[in-house]
Design goal:
429 residues; alpha+beta; two-stranded antiparallel sheet; 16 helices
């Protein structure tokens, strides 16, 4: 069955705010509500006219577990508009879009608000199993003597050694590797040097600065915190990023032999991104003027130890189905989880061996023109609020295509656990 295109009516995202070793000014729902409110206020329809709200989030807080419903209600969608949450690690925002597409194509919905959010700065500190067991035994103690005896067993080393929730979340439980260690695997596999990674990172910052200065980030809407402070732009972008500065940073994930540093990795960030998706019937009913359409999507699985190559495995079937080569795509957005990861994707497509053995192709797919890749920078500069990034790259790709008066682009993202996601988007006319 052919893919029935779904229209992207409009979209918005917050500025991406870098985590600075302390909880940020916004909870995840605050981010999603402020971005969603700005987006919905400029539409021809009311929030109550939506058929559903779907929000991707990798780490909702305990008091916002079904954050999609929480946000839908706070946005004024009303009790009758369902709101729900999806989670596919780094692609949670893209999964929200794909879930909306499925419901629109099935005729269950016509107008959907879908996107993603995460406030990674608010990832929790957790008690260790030893500390939880101590609490349990303390609760079971019935007499004062028993409680004092249990209290005497408490060791400061246990009390003062919390589990960092973010580090736990960024560790693959099947293979026991941090996401950055999987990037080290790709650097080794494709002989990607530290200098190449740092050069890629400097370019990401330079492109982000140039894109911002040229007004290419019009999808950003302001945030206002409880104290009245206004946040207008991504605050992790560094205009002074340089090879000399990045060279001073030490490897983080493999301290002895590694090449992946905080400087050539995506930033830990808070942010939200939304898109409004619609059927053709909804476009006609409300007289909407879409940004473009999503014409195809694909999910793929691969070795979790090389999860960063997910975009290769997801985007390649889209190219094949649509009779396209790498050079037939006018613009690419590949989420920059790590510089090594994006460079690894480029190298994989250029590799006869990889394309034959892993993609069942007769040989290398070819060279991806990096002049068409992440033209306004990527997550190394902008940040990677895990739940939001998949939605951000689809939205920004449409803005890039329209600015360049181009036709088609592919947005793709790697996913912790060994998966990849990709979407083909097209402008209209």
């Amino acid at each position: 069955m052919a893919f029935q295109p779904v229209y992207v009516v409009d979209g918005a995202r917050t500025p991406f705010l870098k985590a600075r070793n302390a909880p940020g000014p916004f909870a995840a729902s605050d981010l999603a509500v402020q971005a969603g409110r700005s987006l919905l206020m400029r539409q021809k329809f009311a929030a109550t006219d939506l058929d559903e709200v779907i929000l991707g989030c990798a780490g909702p807080s305990p008091d916002e577990v079904n954050i999609g419903r929480v946000v839908a209600l706070r946005l004024g969608c009303g009790n009758k508009v369902p709101g729900w949450t999806v989670m596919r690690n780094c692609a949670s925002g893209m999964q929200a879009l794909d879930s909306a597409i499925s419901n629109i194509q099935a005729g269950r919905s016509e107008l959907v608000l879908a996107g993603g959010v995460d406030a990674l700065s608010r990832a929790p500190l957790l008690y260790s199993d030893a500390m939880v067991l101590w609490f349990a035994q303390m609760m079971q103690a019935r007499t004062l003597g028993a409680k004092l005896g249990q209290f005497a067993k408490l060791r400061p080393s246990v009390l003062l050694s919390p589990v960092i929730g973010l580090m736990k979340g960024l560790t693959d439980p099947v293979i026991g590797l941090l996401m950055g260690q999987t990037a080290e695997n790709l650097a080794w596999k494709f002989s990607i040097t530290r200098r190449q990674m740092d050069e890629f990172s400097v370019r990401s910052h330079q492109r982000a600065v140039a894109g911002r200065d040229a007004g290419h980030l019009g999808e950003i809407v302001p945030l206002v915190d409880a104290k009245g402070k206004v946040y207008l732009e991504d605050d992790g972008v560094r205009a002074d990023s340089s090879l000399e500065g990045l060279a001073k940073l030490k490897p983080f994930f493999d301290k002895k032999y590694g090449r992946v540093t905080p400087g050539n990795s995506s930033q830990i960030t808070d942010g939200a991104a939304w898109l409004i998706l619609a059927s053709e019937a909804a476009v006609n009913k409300w007289g909407l003027e879409p940004l473009g359409k999503i014409s195809d999507s694909q999910w793929a699985g691969l070795d979790p130890a090389q999860m960063g190559l997910g975009p290769v495995h997801a985007a390649t079937p889209i190219l094949q189905r649509n009779g396209l080569g790498l050079g037939d795509v006018d613009a690419w957005e590949i989420n920059e989880a790590f510089a090594a990861q994006v460079l690894g994707c480029v190298a994989a497509w250029e590799s006869d061996e990889y394309c034959r053995e892993q993609l069942d192709l007769p040989g290398a797919l070819g060279a991806l023109d990096q002049g068409r890749l992440n033209v306004d920078g990527g997550a190394v500069a902008l940040g990677h609020p895990v739940g939001a990034s998949g939605a951000r790259i689809v939205l920004h790709l449409l803005h890039v295509l329209r600015a360049c008066q181009a036709k088609r682009g592919i947005a793709s993202i790697c996913i912790g656990g060994g998966q990849g996601g990709a979407m083909l988007v097209e402008t209209l006319g």
